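ok here's Fructose-1,6-bisphosphatase class 1, seq below lol
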Amino acid sequence: MLLLSQFLKQQDTEDTLVDLIGTLMLACKEVAIQLREGELAGVLGSTDNTNVQGETQKKMDVIANDLLKKFLLDNPLVAGLASEEEDHPVGGNPEGKYLVIFDPLDGSSNIDINVSVGTIFSILELPEGMDPSQDEAYLQCGRKQVAAGYVLYGQSSVLALTTGHGVNFFTLAHTGDFILTREQVQIPADTKEFAINMSNHRFWEEEMRNYVGDLLQGSEGPRGKNYNMRWIASMVAEVHRVLTRGGIFTYPWDGRDPSKPGKLRLMYEGNPMSMLIEQAGGISSTCYKNIMDLEPQRIHQRSAVALGSKNEVEALLTYHAESGDGQAAKLNI
Ligand SMILES: O=P(O)(O)OC[C@H]1O[C@](O)(COP(=O)(O)O)[C@@H](O)[C@@H]1O
Ligand SMILES: [Mg+2]
Ligand SMILES: [Mg+2]
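and the structure came out like this:
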């Protein structure tokens, strides 16, 4: 039985990073406790507040955000943090080494129906001379992440973590320890499972409509096999499925609001999930560019996302290849 900290030390992870990940897990354990009690603890339902994303905050969005902030700002290694639920970054110790970016509770629209939700995080280093309370310090491309992961609060609470040396799963035991339960996760290259919110079909690009249309034709269509569809509406749960048994998950560009090239957020969701997916042998793309190569312009920037099994994502990319850079520039993706 290997504890998270023991495993990270075995991998020669820097002591400071082991310390920071330990702090993050203290906060996530508290979130898990609140979620386990659910209605009993009075943590379900919505608040009257709207966040910077224009979404009504669930009570648990606020509780998870406050817990992460409290634990992280207590750690002197943390120079600053940025959260999906905060308008602006929050400065920590100006001498600190790390910036932590997080979605405190992903999939929170599912909270009241007891479907899995999770905390997604991305860790960067504070660039020299930058102010950790300003957006600019955080606007680093995904390739600069030193670690990324999520804790999925499902039947069990599972941490999926990468520090750039593969992806490993750790399960939260009743002792309060995260124990290594799956080592060097690899996503199968082929799949027969896709995940997309079909209700947005009419807003997609033609390329995406053609791709999904071909999947729906099953063994009688050009893809020559029958596909199954899943939509949990909780990215963290979908990515966990993809990491565990393969699949393709996409929240593509859609034309509902031209100012937003997709629903998911690059810094809080796109980049950390892309690092996990690439580290497990998969691909993560906007359909035109690898997500981790995007140069972020704004802290709350949105992105189109298509990720998962290598061969399936490559197949999707061929539908977009012809329209290429011109279309990507036009749609700002
Ligand atoms: O309700 P929709 O349009 O299907 O969107 C679902 C997507 O939105 C999200 O819930 C957005 O994340 P938040 O819950 O953190 O806002 C993703 O987890 C999920 O993939
Ligand atoms: Mg989210
Ligand atoms: Mg969220």
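fwiw DSSP finds eight helices and 17 strands in the chain. kinda neat tbh
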